[in-house]
Amino acid sequence: MNIGLFTDTYYPQVSGVATSILTLRETLEAQGHQVYIFTSTDPKVAKNVYERNIFRFPSFPFTGFPDRRLAYSGALHAVQIAKELDLDIVHTQTEFSMGMIGKFVAFTLKIPAIHTYHTMYQDYLHYVANGKLIKPGTVKTAIRNYLKNMEGVVAPSQLVLDTMLEYGVTAPVRVIPTGVNVHSEVTTEDVAQLRTQFGFETDTPVALSLGRLAFEKNIEDTINAFSKIVDTIPAAKLLIAGDGPARESLEKRVTDLHLEKSIIFTGMIDHSEVPKYYAMADVFVSSSDSESQGLTYLEALVQHTPIVVMDSPYVEWLISDPSIGISLNTVEDLGEALTTYLNKTAAVGDVTKRDIKIEEVSAEHFGNEMLDFYQTVINDYNANEEQTGDSLFGTISNPFKRWHE
């Protein structure tokens, strides 16, 4: 199968979406399928650098997210490339520039298009004019219109499915949780070396917060909870790995609490090093209440590191035993939950249940589920074409008009 993934964000950009797309690509390619990435240019990628099966289109930084890009041209070029590649399906991963180009490609070539809804935009409206310009109702209307003519929608979690139903999306929606590589190997030497790098002893209790340092992630709640933990576990450390717009504010909070020796900011870490950080920690913590799929939760799980996170429909499915972690309804319980794992007094939960869950979140399972959805969509699309002759957008002369209804 020849698959086109259309996305505004891809490596070297760092985000859960980029990770999800890379995982999908690698998994499908391992099964013999051809996967092509249509994405935006990036200042970190030189124009003369060869990237296998990656096509970049001219772009500019997105307002409010300077590390994210929006393509401003290339629709006809994308059609030409996709036609030469003989794409079987278009899979958009963004509702913005490359998503619109992906829809145009599908319309022009008369092939089906599906979409993965990754981002709960209502949690990010403050990035644009401090939330005064775009309201939740606007998001609902825009998303419903974007998805109106899709052949299918992928919801990474039950939370996203519920949102799609609330928005009135009529396209078929299938819940397919993003998978992770469950075969990454981290040795005891890797863990020991990383602990030495930060000056930790082998028995130093370590909590890890890893991801983009954004205000909506509520990382300050984790810092506040940890300020109480060090009163009872003085040797405990909190590693905050990653970078983002909230870093300066978070560092100031740590300084105000006089916790510079207990809470350490690592800055951005290389993607290949991420598994080592999970394996080195005794517990992973996230006080975010806006996660639609929680890839960091899965990455921690694969390294057998328990998680302490805020409750959500997705977390209810994921955490089926204390060996996997604890979900919380309120941030006031963060300290007690983290202490459970940092004390290391005894094994928590049934590890066999954790091992079963790891298999359920494997990249292979993710890829198989996606391929099954692709095939279903293609079959339904072809059957509909034979009956009606309609294209993705129906019998209309200008697809752009329909996009902006």
UniProtKB/TrEMBL annotation:
Residues spanning the signal sequence: none
The protein, known as: Glycosyltransferase family 4 protein
The organism of origin for this protein: Periweissella cryptocerci
Superkingdom classification of source: Bacteria
InterPro entries referenced in this protein's UniProt entry, alphabetically: Glyco_trans_1, Glyco_trans_4-like_N, Glycosyltransferase_grp1
Keywords, in A-Z order: Transferase
Domain Glycosyl transferase family: 193-343
GO molecular function: hexosyltransferase activity
Location of the Glycosyltransferase subfamily 4-like N-terminal domain: 14-182
Key word S-adenosyl-L-methionine present: no
